[in-house]
Specification:
Length: 364
């Protein structure tokens, strides 16, 4: 693609006022735990039948993304640290996007033997998201189907010692609300953002949603003493691009965040380009313009693929289902989950009114 064509499309994108896209990679579907709201092993594509992208593939995608001014890549799974080449993948993304890029990883924190946070940081990792839903070993195992919260804490401490930005993801369930509040207290002494995430009525979580869902509005009164007089922390300051509201109680080292996609229409400027482990790119979950990147990798036409992706993100405003926001982050981790083909998808959108979220112009 001529540089003039790329520049013209980038200028059009900038003029739209949208946050610039970032890459959200699902590196695998494998996980050695079995969280009650995830249940990866019950998914029909558990383990993936298709060959995943190689470190070289990620490097090529990152180099092309860099030409499109993309400066962030986030990796999740499954449990991405189960990939034997995870250090090479992180290095490929960091090298491809270049100096100053933000490279992140979501993990349950129980790193496999032989893998350390130091190795990931040396490869170019700049921030770490750790899933932690209880500090009690037995109750944590009930939620996550195994694992050890003390090992997750060790991972968090190691990341902080290396000056990585750290966020803790805690899915709130009614039966484990006290556990979530204990996790929140970690932010009192640690410079972390603890994010309280509402349960979503999707995938395996649908089986427990009626019993365990508790909205942000019911959680906040339990935090009243901490949040009284708390100051807002901008997502730009935290280096966060996902939707949410972040507050820092007086005297706390860290902050408390709310990710409430079930009760609040929070994602007014979604800007993730999701890429599955086998290389299927999805620029918008409400607009069916998926594009398989493997053939473009083979043909050397990634520039055409990225032009398609940027154009699809701009065109989604014409999708009648979007209405400026969506309220559920549909789970697209699995390559073979059924998606309509052809015309843009029209999905129902629940309008819940204003939740006092930051404006669309602030970084997610």
């Amino acid at each position: 693609m001529p540089d003039t064509d790329r520049s013209a499309l980038l200028a059009e994108f900038a003029a739209s006022g949208r946050n610039h896209p970032y890459l959200a990679f699902t590196l695998n579907s494998l996980c050695n735990l079995d969280c009650v709201f995830c249940k990866p092993r019950c998914m029909p594509d558990y383990g993936h039948k298709d060959r995943p992208l190689s470190a070289g593939g990620y490097a090529a995608i990152a180099r092309e993304a860099g030409a499109w001014k993309v400066t962030k890549a986030h990796c999740s799974g499954g449990e991405p640290t189960l990939r034997r080449d995870i250090v090479q993948v992180i290095a490929a993304l960091a090298d491809g996007l270049g100096t100053g890029a933000s490279i992140g990883l979501t993990t349950h924190g129980n790193l496999r033997r032989g893998l350390t946070v130091d190795q990931l940081a040396d490869a170019g990792l700049t921030y770490l998201n750790v899933s932690l839903h209880s500090l009690d070993r037995a109750r944590s195992a009930e939620i996550m189907g195994g694992g050890d919260p003390d090992r997750a804490r060790d991972t968090i401490d190691a990341a902080l010692a290396l000056h990585l930005k750290v966020k803790i993801n805690c899915v709130v369930q009614r039966s484990y609300l006290r556990d979530a509040l204990q996790v929140v207290r970690l932010a009192k002494d640690l410079p972390v953002a603890v994010r309280l995430i509402e349960l979503q009525n999707i995938g395996p979580a649908s089986a427990i949603f009626g019993k365990e869902y508790i909205p942000e509005a019911e959680v906040r009164p339990h935090l009243e003493d901490w949040l009284a007089g708390a100051g807002h922390v901008s997502r730009t300051e935290l280096g966060v691009r996902s939707p949410g509201d972040y507050l820092q109680p007086d005297g706390w080292a860290g902050s408390i965040g709310f990710i409430s996609n079930s009760s609040c229409a929070t994602c007014s400027d979604a800007n993730r380009i999701k890429i599955t482990s086998s290389g299927v790119a999805r620029p918008c979950i409400l607009h069916n313009r998926d594009i398989a990147l493997k053939q473009h990798l083979a043909d050397g036409t990634l520039d055409e693929a990225f032009a398609h992706l940027f154009r699809a993100m701009l065109d989604r405003d014409g999708n009648p289902a979007w209405q400026g926001f969506h309220y559920v982050d549909y789970d697209l981790r699995w390559d073979r989950m059924r998606r309509p083909q052809g015309a843009p998808v029209t999905l129902p959108v629940l309008s819940t009114g204003s939740c006092g979220r930051p404006s669309a112009g602030e970084a997610r």
